[in-house]
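Please fill in the sequence for the structure shown.

STRUCTURE ENCODING:
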């Protein structure tokens, strides 16, 4: 992803056309938004392998979490972030408002994840 960004920035710098720069930026952000949305959909449908830290957990650690809740939340989070990124670069007029909305969304999500034991399984071990 980083190499793609550098290549697009270099090509747009060579041509120095503001219209071309905006086109490349729009195409890059569309690609980035669709990629995050695709990963979010995969997670949302119940594939937890894309969640950070899942692959290094032991079976005992995995059994302490309600994976249905975790995948639902993380998938919805990825799709919401994808939509926010799309809106940020689609609307130049509302750019500042969307940046503030992205910051607020990130803070709310961080608080929600760390506030309690919402993703823990029941005491019986059922998920």
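FILLED IN BY: designer on duty
SEQUENCE:
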């Amino acid at each position: 992803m980083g190499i793609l960004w550098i290549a697009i920035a270099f090509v747009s710098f060579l041509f120095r056309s503001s219209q071309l720069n905006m086109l490349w930026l729009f195409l890059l952000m569309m690609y980035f938004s669709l990629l995050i949305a695709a990963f979010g959909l995969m997670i949302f449908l119940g594939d937890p392998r894309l969640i950070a830290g899942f692959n290094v957990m032991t079976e005992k650690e995995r059994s302490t979490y309600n994976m249905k809740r975790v995948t639902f939340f993380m998938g919805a989070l990825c799709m919401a972030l994808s939509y926010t990124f799309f809106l940020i670069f689609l609307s130049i007029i509302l750019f500042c408002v969307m940046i503030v909305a992205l910051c607020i969304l990130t803070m709310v999500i961080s608080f929600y994840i760390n506030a309690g034991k919402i993703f823990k399984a029941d005491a019986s071990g059922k998920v």
